[in-house]
Design goal:
Organism: Methylomonas albis
Shape: elongated
Largest sheet: none
Number of helices: 3
Protein name: Integrase catalytic domain-containing protein
Strand content: under 5%
């Protein structure tokens, strides 16, 4: 078996590689804005959520608050 480089595979599949810069915090301002909103909202969980149902409930509350 012979592997191809990521760039060659992307080109073969017709996928445009990302032009973003790795490790640059302001590369995607929309994502960064959402993360800041999440972190500075008062009920932001400081510890990991107990399970998937608790996480879903937290996200549902966030969406309701945001809209």
């Amino acid at each position: 078996m012979k592997g191809a480089t990521i760039l060659a595979t992307l080109q073969q599949l017709g996928v445009m590689p990302s032009l973003s810069h790795p490790a640059v915090s302001n590369d995607n301002p929309f994502s960064e804005s959402l993360f800041k909103t999440l972190k500075y909202r008062p009920p932001y969980p400081l510890k990991p959520l107990a399970d998937l149902s608790v996480a879903r409930e937290w996200v549902a509350d966030l969406v309701h608050w945001y809209l």
